[in-house]
Design brief:
By secondary structure, the protein is an all-beta fold. It has one domain (7-226): Sandwich (Immunoglobulin-like). It has one helix at 51-54; strands at residues 7-13, 20-27, 30-39, 80-81, 86-93, 96-110, 129-139, 153-157, 164-169, 189-198, 205-210, 224-226. The strands form two sheets. An eight-stranded antiparallel sheet has the order 3-2-1-9-10-7-6-5. Strands 4-12-11-8 form a four-stranded mixed sheet, with no helix packed on it. β1 (7-13) and β2 (20-27) form a beta hairpin. The termini are far apart.
Length: 227
């Protein structure tokens, strides 16, 4: 797909055993339907945040116990916040090290199932409802975070289990998520958005979890939760 222009792609990862990664592309007037690509471990290369790797091996719930200690002023692993509250988070991205961001989940908004039609995922999203996790990122450290990407945000259902995740390549007006701009130095702020999928209209995405380093399953940690 690297040769396509004006391409919008959706990669979907459901937090269940045997997850499939699916891709839907829109390229000018030509529409390419999605097709199963097999288990996430054998899926083709995709953006940095892969849905197959986004889901930890076991679902995380609310109120995680025994949070790990963090640096002074930084959010602790497993900490829970209300929507609109800010967490101070250590942040690295590629070769950019030693950053600090203030991360705030501002809203979790229910979308319309028809919003997903652009991705041509067909039955793979039938009955599912998109939710838009909206957040802000502020650089509160001394590291220039130009062109970094703040992802690792997922939805949680009412019982604390993980919602499905849709990773978007390209432009999606309903939920824009762009890399940080050039000159993203101390004091600069940008909004972001992540798409979570509820399995049905009767089930809601009621919380959001940030699971980037050092709050991730690879480090045996617990994410930061907003609800």
């Amino acid at each position: 797909m690297s040769t396509m222009r004006r391409t919008t792609t959706g990669v979907i990862g459901l937090a269940v055993a045997g997850t499939l990664s699916l891709t839907g592309c829109k390229n000018g007037n030509e529409e390419i339907p999605a097709a199963p690509s097999g288990p996430a471990s054998s899926a083709p290369a995709a953006p940095a945040e892969q849905p197959g790797s986004a889901a930890p091996s076991s679902p995380s719930g609310y109120g995680s116990s025994a949070p790990a200690a963090g640096a002074a002023g930084q959010a602790k692993s497993g900490q829970t916040f209300k929507l609109g509250e800010t967490a101070t988070v250590p942040f690295d991205y590629g070769s950019t090290k030693g950053g600090t961001i203030a991360l705030t989940v501002t809203a979790i908004e229910q979308g319309n199932p028809a919003d997903l039609d652009v991705f041509k995922l067909g039955d793979q999203v039938k009955g599912k409802v998109p939710y838009y996790i909206r957040y802000t990122v502020k650089n509160v450290g001394s590291t220039d975070l130009s062109f970094a990407s703040v992802g690792h945000m997922k939805g949680l259902l009412g019982d604390g289990s993980e919602a499905g995740k849709l990773s978007v390549i390209g432009k999606f007006d309903k939920c824009p998520a762009e890399s940080l701009p050039k000159g993203f130095t101390n004091g600069q702020t940008q909004t972001g958005c992540a798409v979570a999928l509820a399995p049905s209209a009767e089930t809601k995405v009621s919380a959001a979890e940030y699971w980037g380093d050092p709050y991730n399953s690879l480090n045996k940690g617990k994410g930061l939760v907003w609800k």
